[in-house]
Amino acid sequence: MLVYGDVRRQADPREEAARFLEAVEAARGLRPGLARHAALAGALIAAGELIQGVADAEEAGRDGQGGATDRLTGLLVRLAGAVWASWRSGFATGEVPDRAAVERACAGLTPEPLEIRLPEGFAFYAVYPESYAEAACASGLDAGAIVIGIRSIGTTLGAMVAAGLGGADLVTVRPSGHPFRRELPLRPSLQDRLGPDRRIAVADEGPGLSGSSFASVLSALRERGIGSDRVVLFPSHDGEPGHAAAEETRRLYGGTRRLVRTFDDLVLRAERPEHRLEAWLAPLIGPLTAPLEEISGGAWRTHRDGDRGAWPPAHPMQERRKFLARAASGTWLVKFVGLGAEGERKVARARALHAAGFTPEVAGFRHGFLVERWIEGATPLDRSRIDPVRLVERVGHYLGYRATAFPAGRGRGASLAALWEMARHNAAQALGAEQARRLDGWRAALPRFDAGMRPVETDSRLHAWEWLVLRDGTLLKTDAVDHHAGHDLVGCQDVAWDIAGAAVELGLDDAARRHLAADVARRTGREVDPGFVAYLEICYTAFQLGAMTMAGDAASDPGEQARLRDAADRYRAHLASRLSAATLP
User: Fold this and answer.
1) Residues 481, 552 within the same domain
2) Are residues 447 and 567 in the same domain?
3) pTM for this predicted structure
4) Which residues contact 576 (CB under 8 A, 6 or more apart)?
């Protein structure tokens, strides 16, 4: 099934350098404390993104960046050292590089666009760079080691390993090829640095489904005669590679020493009080009156419906870390939304949605975590107990607001052709080639649909359980800030994507669908093409079918497996009916 994709953007290097400089200056302007530390980490992440783009361009043979990779990498390690010093001192110290140093490192960048990939661990999975420096300190390696960071996110993680080792030599590499069978030809310049006695640290977020990124580096080192006794791996978790890993990958990975410090080690079980999540929250909501309660991995469902038989499906591996924090000021949802600028953008979106009356109150943002009011006594939406006209009007108001408040440029989401390819592939996998061929007739309409597209930061999560009914009957939307920028291939789309999603998830009949589209059109001042919505409904259903199928295959809990497979069956049936019933434009 086709579901996942990298979040990429085309960027002017000089604009990225200006963003990096702005982040450094923002940190410089703050007093010592958690806010300053978070700003330093944000500057580090911005620098890592810039270096990733420049290094990829230089490796691809695109000249003109003035050899900036080495200059920027040196500054990155220095900045990582500042983040590490801030963490170790309880946020009291940490020298911020001066403006001149940043400008020198960025000198010579040209306007030729770079492709910058979102470091997903920092955006979605609570991978904290500080944990890599902590792991490095426990490794027994020293500053004489060479650190290999696997791009993308390994650029920044490798810098933190180098900082933890006292400023070790950092290089970054980009394995290539099929995601499950990556390879890494070592550059001559890197081969020359791999002396016979040098110890090597390798940093990345993984291992993922295949573990092939780590394995590609280990294979390349082995070909140079470097055995596992000279290598230490720094992954983000202590699990083994996933189900798509080759036996050779498992052997290489399992036979190499690795050191892990997770978010739980770094923050939840921190020895120093100032490193603990509850200490971060106190300035916003007051001292906690009870221990934090983790509700990640679908555990939030126990607070919405005690009947396990009525639980919606969840994909624990893809869920953001989240906690309930109880204080005299009430109960608060503390959810990881991203480090640095990515998290700041999501918090700004959450504030705007609350101000417009659609989502819960926002208390603030603390080094990756959005803090918003947990609504006690609210119940998940039951479609059978709400007036369908009122429901459609509320959803239309919400989608109309999003479409006008959060426009998105092109290139931040899959093209209509890519959605077609995904839908056809998933339909063939689930329903067979004959059913999938029913999508072929839509191909000719794509240029017309594309001409009318206005991408927005869609909600993309309109399932009934994502709506809460308050005691006074008010409908609030939850989980509304970041599914347009998730770890999947969809990304930002026209508001018609959300109209189609609402039709599927809320079980709208044809009259309600027309009412919803008309309401959104009235609020946005732009007509909604019913043919476009029909096409996107097919694509949406095929995507959800793929997501639920893959989640079910990965689930280990039998009850969760059953829920996910039931959901996949519903999407499969809906896709079959839509392929049969939809009228070609």
Assistant:
1) yes
2) yes
3) 0.94
4) 431, 435
